[in-house]
Each structure stands twice: as structure tokens, then as C-alpha cells.
């Protein structure tokens, strides 16, 4: 057995006390982690947000029955792995009779990746021959005293854990290309490589000072400032589910218009992204109320997609009797999308047999995804909303043909349900707002869980191999933690229902809505750069203050003209 005193660091597992107004039970009753070099002063990982959430149960009526964790403990096993155990409890912390005599167990080698939870008899853990068990430890984490289980670590693993879970920081700059610059144009095209705390990097434009003479030959010293990559929040108030896209030389903006009670589909058009959100930006109504066609309310989540060689808007709308469903309308070739007559008659999405996508629930938030040479639709489906039999919203997927994207080419397949506490927190049982992209052979599909217009709204992430059959749920990996939450983006409460777009240089951006305060319900729009971190994994919560860091924004180069 390795003695505690031979170790150089510690990790602590704990739960937090629920606070209804700012950290409810669904979040607090999860396993949190903190690390320490001296065993006395601990720093929370993942901004003190939960990292391991017990999965909910699904009852005989297809309803979600949330679960929480209590009394976490840490164990080191003789084979080098670690085990995290906890008692499974009900959402409010009560006794879970269905787990009597058993423990929740997560296995890990590094506290960076965890195996799926298991529910074991207590004796099974002993069969693994644990070498060391965590000691009970009480300490202050932020403003809160917690009691948990502390286990010693070696320094190398401590460093790896911090690297994985801490917020990214811009730590240095490098010049990727050589210093020889022969003209002002060459200098303009030169990029600085910003390096981040996980070892990843991003190329940055520099705004160079213009007082350096580049017309005469010789050695020169030039100064500049790395161009900031970010936008002020909020960009627009009262708009949810934002979508930005570049089409026929213009930028466009679509969203759910909360300011007009979600009635009508509106679009903005401008030469730049900044102009889309200028106070004088015009909004063009492209689909209004038509009661005889069933377009009355809940004009929700419009998305622009090019499918095959045609442009479409996917959206949800409902008739006089509340009940939104997924629709699609096609842009006539060569027409301006801000002109309502440029769009063909909307068509309701149907199944393979031509029947409506749903006759027993609501469908919404449909998105299009192309990967591995195949086309898919992903959407949110919910039955019995607002009743005791509410199933919660679920993500479904099906393949489609590019020529007929309004009709599924196979039966829908269940992809995800809100089983984690951050997805079903305080009765908000949501998996909705999917949107995806492909990068380096991987499909990344974000979605939203929690309260759609509250501070607990958060983004989850599903990933799969690009060439896999995406209608097979087994090819997808679901993140155990949200990838964007009110803990990870300062001053953005309830960040969610996002979309992605690329700028003129091919840089990927994420757009989403959030609230300005923890008690606000006014959805506002935000945009931030997507950074690809260690091992190419996307980072959605890079702070603008680190893009670049202010202390590293000024640069100096020695060049030869």
C-alpha cells in the first residue's frame, strides 16, 4: 500500500447543499470534485459545478423519475484505477428503496474520463480489492463548507486533472511563420499563434501600428495588438434560439421573437454581423399568422440549412389549439430570403409512410445534419406536456434523402432523454434545441437541458464518428457534464439553444441565448468563438477575456523589409 504521506496532492469528492434560488437539488445532489497540493486548501474543479450525475429512472408510464447522489466516497484499486461511489437518493434527498443495499459506482483511471455508472451490491466493491479508501475531510470550497472523501494523488495526476477541468487561459504567443516581411500586405497576412493552458493554440490576426516605415529596406521593429474575438452581451434582447448564416454575400439572423409573443418568422439581413444587431437593423416578416393553414402561434426555433442544392428553413409552428409541430419551407432559387414571396408554401414534416411526424405529442427544434455522406434530421419530441404523464422532451433522429428532406426515409430512433440532474432540474425535463457540426472526423451534436428560459438552462454534447450510422444510438457518446452553463460563462444565465456558423475565414462560432441575471426570463443573444482544445475537443465556454488575454494582447516583432 502506498502511504498517504508519500503522495504530493489530494482529490476530494463531495456534494453541495441545495439552494433553491441559485443551485437547486438536481445540481447539488451530484458528485463534485476539488483538488489540493497540501491536503488543507482545496480548489473546486469545473467551477464547483457537479461532474457525476446519477441517471434518472423511467417508470412504467414512460415518465422520468430523477435521482441524486449522497455520501460520495473515493477508492484506489490495486489495478491502478479509482472508484467513485455514492448512495443513490431521490431528487429531494430521500431514501431510494430501489437502490437499497447497493452503491452507485463510477470507474476512472485519471478523473478526466469516467465509465458509465453502475449500481453494485456493496460486497462487489470489496471483490475489487481496494487498496486505499478516502478519508473524511471537511473544508471550505468558495463560500461553502463541505464534507467529503479525500484521497491522495501523485503530482503528475494532479496536474493532469487540473489541466482537464480548469478554464482555459491564454498563456503565451508564438510566431508560427518566419519573421521576414517584405510589404505591408505581408504583415497584414501574418498571424500570431495564441497558446492556451492546455497546450492548444489558435491563429490570431494582429492590428499593426501604422507608424512603422515599410517602404524602405532594413531591420524594423513593429508593434501591434492581437484582434479581440468576441461580441458584447447581449446582442439582441427578447430573442431566443438564434441562428446566423451567410448567404449570397449577406449575413442573416433568425430567431424566436419573444418580443412579439413568438408570433411570425422574421429575418434580418446586413453586410456584417455587427450590423445585424445594430439598433436600426430592419426585421422582415417572411411568414405570418394564417389560421386556415394552422400557423397561429409558437413560431419557434427557425433554422436555415442548405440541403442538397436547395436552401430551407426548418421551424415549428402551432394552430389555434396549442401544439407546435415541425415544418419546412424552401427558398426559391435566386430569390432574396427577406422577401416573403421568395419562399415556397411551408410543408409539414412527415414520416416514411407519409403520416405526420407526431399525432400524440409536440415536435419542435428540428435541425439538419450531414455526415459520412448521409443526411439526418434530429428533433425534440414530447408527450403529455403539462400533465402528470409528461414524458419530458427527447431527442429523436432519422435519415432523410436530400431531394425530399420533408419526409423521413426511415422510422425515428430515440437518441437521448434528460436523465442527468442538470437536464431534468426542478421539473424542467428537457432535451431540445439540437444543432451539430463535423470536425476532424467527429460529429458534435449539442443540445439543451434544464429550464428553457431560466438560469439552469445548459448545453449538453453528443459525439460520434462521422462515418458511423448516426441512427444507431450505440455509436454516440453523451457528455456527463454540460459543456456550457451559468457556472462556465460569467454573466450569462441559462445559456442554451444554440447554433453554429463559420465566419469568412472559416472560424467556427456558437450563437445561443441567455439571460442577463439569475432571476431574469428575458432571453438575449450571445456569440462566442468555438476553440478546439487539447486532442481537438471543442471548447464552447472560452472567456472573451482570454481571447486574447489583455496582458498578452500587445505584440512586438523584429522583421526584415
Plain-language structure description:
This protein has 561 residues and is mainly beta. The protein has 3 domains: 4-165, no CATH class; 170-228 and 549-560; 239-539, 5 Propeller (Tachylectin-2, Chain A). The chain is built from 5 helices and 39 strands. The strands form 11 sheets. It has a 5-stranded antiparallel beta sheet with strand order 3-2-1-12-11. A hairpin with an 8-residue loop joins β35 and β36. The protein is globular.
Roughly how much helix do the residues carry, as a percent range?
Answer: under 10%
CATH superfamily of the largest domain: Glycosyl hydrolase domain, family 43
> Under the CATH scheme, which architecture of the largest domain would be assigned?
5 Propeller
Compute the average pLDDT. 94
Can you tell me the CATH topology of the largest domain?
A: Tachylectin-2, Chain A
Taken as a percent bin, the fraction of beta residues is: 35-45%
The largest sheet is: 5 strands, antiparallel
Tell me the number of strands.
39
What is the CATH level 1 assignment of the largest domain? Answer: Mainly Beta
Q: What structural class should be given to the helix and strand makeup? A: mainly beta
Q: Order of strands across the biggest sheet?
A: 3-2-1-12-11
